[in-house]
């Protein structure tokens, strides 16, 4: 709350897990009333490729290099899960020119900013040519994105997948790792959300395994249509080798 009250700060990332829901609601209410943005709670943060990262997103330096996060690409990415955002940065870098910006909104029931908040923001960033969304079962956040698509508020291609289709295999209600990932009624199921997104015009694969190829197809189509100019490749600075690894490989020794 102290950070939100600072007039010079516009975006606050709350990495902490287990924030009481009443506290989260107060923070969200204050942020919205004062034109501030909260990423989280329970988030790993976000990254703008080639610029900066907030929180501990994107993993190790080696992973940042592997995922081409040292220079901007053309894809805007948003997910609930932080761990899965790292996986998707890698997937997206393999089949496209990489991420322009990536955000994990966190897995709590009341996120400070929603999937659709960031998709609508990406829609207004000229450098972002397509969006990838990774949702999950539980709650109704994905339906605000469905409404935005139906109302024509999003003009760029959206590739989406909602995880948690396996919940139907269990006989009772399942609580997954995130507080918000609870298999409630039929509307909150991953299958219903995926179908709603598909009906609203998003590109939705048949499974998580097929997500990579669908991202690739959507990106290549945009390239063919001339909507994505080639991104100039940048050579990242050489990364010093980890000391323990260097000692093991016999490259260095203690004096």
From TrEMBL:
A Pfam family recorded for this sequence: Ligase_CoA
Region Disordered, annotated ranges: 227-255
Biased composition (Pro residues): 229-240
Subcellular location: Cytoplasm
Active site: 178
GO biological process: acetyl-CoA biosynthetic process; fatty acid biosynthetic process
Statement: the UniProt record of this protein carries the keyword S-adenosyl-L-methionine: no
This enzyme's EC code(s): 2.3.3.8
Entry keywords, A to Z: ATP-binding, Cytoplasm, Lipid biosynthesis, Lipid metabolism, Magnesium, Metal-binding, Nucleotide-binding, Transferase
Signal peptide bounds: none
SUPFAM superfamilies linked: Succinyl-CoA synthetase domains
Protein name, per record: ATP citrate synthase
Organism the protein comes from: Aegilops tauschii subsp. strangulata
Lineage of producing organism: Eukaryota, Viridiplantae, Streptophyta, Embryophyta, Tracheophyta
